[in-house]
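lol so apparently i was supposed to do this last week
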Amino acid sequence: AWKRNQITSFTDRDGFEKEVVRHVETTLARSMFNCDEIAAYSATSLAFRDRLITHWNRTQQRQTYRDTKRVYYLSLEFLMGRALDNAMLNVGLKNVAQGMRFLRAFAFDCYDCVIEDVVKQEHDAALGNGGLGRLAACFLDSLATLNFPAWGYGLRYRYGIFKQEIIDGYQVEVPDYWLDFNPWEFPRHDVTVDIQFFGQVNKKTVGGKTISVWEAGEIVQAVAYDVPIPGYDTPTTNNLRLWSSKASGGEFDFQKFNSGDYESSVADQQRAETISAVLYPNDNLERGKELRLKQQYFWVAASLYDIVRRFKKSRRSWNEFPDQVAIQLNDTHPTLAIVELQRILVDIEGLEWDNAWEIVTSTFGYTNHTVLPEALEKWPVGLVQHLLPRHLQIIYDINLFFLQSVEKAFPDDRDMLRRVSIIEESQPKMVRMAFLAIVGSHKVNGVAELHSDLIKTTIFKDFVEIYGPDKFTNVTNGITPRRWLHQANPRLSELIASKCGGNDFLKDLTLLNQLEKHVQDKQFRKEWAEIKYANKVRLAKHIKDTTGVVVNPASLFDVQVKRIHEYKRQQLNIFGVIHRYLSLKAMTPDQRKKQLPRVSIFGGKAAPGYWMAKQIIHLINSVGAVVNKDEDIGDLLKVIFLEDYNVSKAEMICPASDISEHISTAGTEASGTSNMKFVLNGGLIIGTCDGANIEITREIGESNIFLFGNLSEDVEDLRHAHTYGSHTIDSDLDKVFNEIEKGTFGTPHDFSAMIAAVRQHGDYYLVSDDFHSYIETHQLVDEAYRNQDEWIAKCITSVSRMGFFTSDRCINEYAEEIWNVEPLAVDRH
Ligand code: DL6
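anyway here it is w/ DL6 bound
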């Protein structure tokens, strides 16, 4: 007879071994006597995956049975990284896998599994560009850990973010085919949705009522793939559902095939599969491509169909929909979901417009992640009409009713209507997706205090007047300490646990405050410093292996890893590095002996079409090529560009940093989250008063952070002065430019646009304005680092005050302020 607990999963080493052997010999069809690291990874993953499935099934059953409100997190990006290590740690059984014995080739070469090596066989799941996608991944971890009934919905790209190679100092993009062997996903061939595109809208009268019927021009099938998301120290295992596109109605056209027209027989299939083929590699930049809009609609339509289907099972009335369903829009990419739900309710379910709209707006929340104009999504009206004719009609109706209400409330302000209209009256006309998201949601939030204030006073100012301030709120970003401390830095995590009464701090990060009383404990500081050093040795080895450059782990490691973007100002950093190099060159050997050795480490991808960002990468590599072989300088300065920065590299880099750079022009970085990762790993930061740097300063104290540069309130005036007044370039920066122009770092012409951006084109990012204080602040960093005792004390103090920056806190804030959902109690047995 079937028993509920028949599928028992292992709890100890013996049980684990049995499972691994079973998977090696049956699932993988190999012999235990011939098992390489990849097979060891595969079998270990499958064993843990089975365990997750059991928990996943129970979680889903419990959520269905209790039928409480669920959260749906719609994100076009989920930058998950590797899954195995995370799964082992979250279920608390990593120790059972350590030391398992595999044989490489029929007993001649026996090796004990070092789990760290096995874990490295996994390909990163890189379905995202940067901060936005990684935030979504941290949120999934927290939602499961806190036992919230929640699903993520995204796209299953066949190619995630490209792999970056550096060839002759230039970025070269290589496709990232990550699906070769992916034990973490389950295809659900039974969960499919037909998605319509193109076609026309006809009016029909049904039962005396006129309704709009959208006759599709093309239908593509969405197939669900599920990825289990295990919470930490809880049986709750939530679901991330990713949609893959497929031709609807069969593999290919047999008639064409039989008549010998092989190419077009598969054309439909290929066109359909293109939709989920590739992630657009832009960060903070929108390019308005038709395929991108197709991706967005495909994904939101499939997700909403799924959500509505689940809701309907409980046979509740439509008015209860917002009591059962909260949908969060991760930026404007899923905004069409607002229109799609209105369409379902009005056209298919027959609700009155106002009733439907009330349900829609009570269901959605919208998170804004940027104020940069080039990142705010707008779609040409003509394109929307062509692809989604019924949706454009609905958007026009939403706009009409919205503008009528605005006109009523602000009868004397005709210009207000033009400013807030969802349709921008430009040539061509555009649909402003952020405005549509605001109008269709009950809450709008920014991701750090400064950012949330800025959206209220700049891009969404009129909407604050229209709706009042309460519709707008702030949820400062956070990170999961499970991945970003426990997994990335196990030794530090263990040391912290020894002072904080065990691992509870991983679930309640405010418990880190117990560290503060140990700051003066010499032995503790020594152990802390040893761990940092060991992490630096590991990174130094990686640098040697991948670039051939030998760096001294005793140097100060100065790190800037993130997407390459002018607003993030890697150019400021590399100009600063050149300034340091020139200063060292000008010194006598005796003076040089007194200098602190430093390694400047860069990493990050440039969007393939972002020429200036690619020039910045080229300059960094060109400077490295000169400096790293300069014998006068030796260890005093090394410049490294780490290829193909991604989540798993970040897990190695963050624990090894002494100082990291978060130096965006004030008011441009919405939050930043790597700033939090670096501080949590016992590194200090140099940064501008921007994004979450401000709140980090408030929490850890001004004496533990190196702030510099102009404030966001001064930025507009400075830009104005650059254009209309006189613009004098900082004299030290001028010397740096002159050196580049002399050809010290290769062909000057290669870098002329970068220099012209500052000298001639208005210095939009304020590089010159901030240069002096940047250089001075780096001198303060050097001085502070010389006193290692004090430095370590600053690091420990900072970590002890980082409790606020856990993504668990974010999720609790969203749950209370925006979603109105409760966690579901779990049965641990
Ligand atoms: O909120 C997550 C992350 C922030 O930490 C970064 O500061 C911000 O740049 C990033 N925003 C985007 C915007 N892209 N779009 N759309 O990636 O979000």
